[in-house]
Amino acid sequence: MIAVTAFKWVPPFAAGQVRDHRVRWILNEAGWAYEIRLLDAVDQKSAEYRALQPFGQVPTLEEDGRAPMFESGAIVWDIAERAGVLIPSDPVMRAQVLTWYFAALNTLEGALINVSEAEFFLPDEAAKAARRPQVLPFAEKRLSELQLALGDRLWLVGETFTVADLMMSSVLKIAASLDMLKAYPALQVYFDRCLDRPAYRKAVADQCATIAAHGPRDMRYREAQAAG
Ligand SMILES: N[C@@H](CCC(=O)N[C@@H](CS)C(=O)NCC(=O)O)C(=O)O
């Protein structure tokens, strides 16, 4: 059996955004059964979990007979490859898919996360206003470069949706959550096209259902803090 870790609960701004949605999405695309192993803040800090994920983050992938994995990018690629879905067999196309896959995780995600951290984690409007000029222009530059590179193509590589589009649209969810995509109409259309898939809808609906069924107390934040 395959098990994926996810949080019991996250604040509303993060519901549907937590990176286990990527792993659920590719597993749904592959048609592989899996179970979700729910974590709270105490579990996150435990030595048992750190042995699986040294940084205490989600997601991880555990599978009978295989070494456990962490890093959503590594997990999604591994599943796509083994299931034979969303990665073209042609080596030239495959290399292009890999290139865009890394571009999503390396070139776009960090820039967008900086904005997201400013908007969602800084304590007040003054702190946000001070931070925005340091992070927003760079993220906007990246989005505009991506839109230019995409041009009028439907997908990043070739004629069909690939794992590069899965990862890029998952990263663009960060921009969408910040209301940044509407300034890039072609990217917005591309983004909507990528998410228009049953495997994606189920991934996010399942994550949100779990979060809705729990609350902050289930995360045992105080106990985790008390434990040091
Ligand atoms: N690069 C990692 C990032 C994982 C990550 O940041 N996970 C977040 C949830 S989306 C998390 O677990 N945050 C809690 C923490 O860092 O303590 C990946 O893609 O798997």
Automatic annotation (TrEMBL):
Keyword Transferase: yes
InterPro entries the UniProt entry points to: Glutathione-S-Trfase_C-like (IPR010987), Glutathione-S-Trfase_C_sf (IPR036282), Glutathione_S-Trfase (IPR040079), Glutathione_S-Trfase_N (IPR004045), GST_C (IPR004046), Thioredoxin-like_sf (IPR036249)
Pfam hit, one: GST_N_2
The GST C-terminal domain, residue ranges: 90-212
Keyword Secreted: no
MF-aspect GO terms: transferase activity
CDD domains: GST_C_8, GST_N_GTT1_like
GST N-terminal domain mapped to chain residues: 7-87
UniProt KW keywords: Transferase
Official protein name in the record: Glutathione S-transferase
The organism of origin for this protein: Brevundimonas nasdae
